[in-house]
Amino acid sequence: MSEEPGQRSLPGGDAISLRGITRRFGHKWALRGIELDVGLSELVVIQGPNGSGKSTLLRIIATAVVPTGGAGHVVGLDLRRAAAAIRSRCALLGSTNGLYEDLSARENLLFAARMLGVRQPAVAIADVLAQVNLTNDADERVRFYSSGMQRRLALARIMLREPQVLLLDEPFNALDADGADVVNALIARSIARGAAVLIVLHDLARLAHRPTRSLALGQGRLA
After folding, report:
1. Residue 17: pLDDT above 60?
2. How far apart are CA 187 and CA 93, in angstroms?
3. I want to staple 179 with a disulfide (CB 3.0 to 4.6 A). Which of 15, 44, 151, 175 is the partner?
């Protein structure tokens, strides 16, 4: 079987492997020489103050931001040469939900399902809507949703797929206890099927699953 461009075998089961990753915005360095390995079935938490580069790091791994320097592989694929293939294997829940506010929840999910090539999309959508407790509001436009409902819909969109790498940026934001249960269930299922999970998280108390490692990011450097 031929390999995709920029692909290599997973080194020791590492789903994420970063070497010397830097990112500069103008004259400001957001990341400085990041070295990070995250293995399959691992749950790694990154903590740090606002502006320390946490969200930028997740966005680089998801190929939403191109690094200024360094090299990296995600599920064996080169960050620079195989961005499209990486995006098909990763799911990122960012600080913003990325929803189409003039569409209903069901329409948002149908669009995502078609882009992902989900089989039997109507069945899959009904299932994830039930999991996030949005069935009764599925046909209401998203602009009328509360922030918590929008966050749950963003989680439902991730549930339509089974990413090999799950990236979560403060996933508990705007969520009540029931919403937090949805996040924790998603994390548990992802780890159980062998995915790597990397979370930016301020409040560890809301995380039900014990992390493999907790790392600190400050002034663009991991400790």
Report:
1. yes
2. 12
3. 175
Flag whether pLDDT at 163 surpasses 90. Answer: yes
Cβ pair 172, 95 in contact under 8 A: no
Is pTM beyond 0.85? Reply is: yes
The beta-strand segments (E) located in the chain are 14-25, 28-39, 43-47, 69-74, 77-78, 90-93, 165-169, 196-200, 213-218, 221-222
Query: How far apart, in Å, do the first and last CA atoms of the chain sit?
Result: 39
- Residue type for position 203: D
CB 44 within 8 A of CB 213: yes
Q: Which domains does the chain have, with CATH numbers?
A: 11-98+164-222 (3.40.50.300)
The whole-number pLDDT of residue 223 equals: 84
Q: Are 91 and 166 in contact (CB under 8 A)?
A: yes
pLDDT value, residue 95: 87
* 99/140 Cα distance (integer angstroms): 13
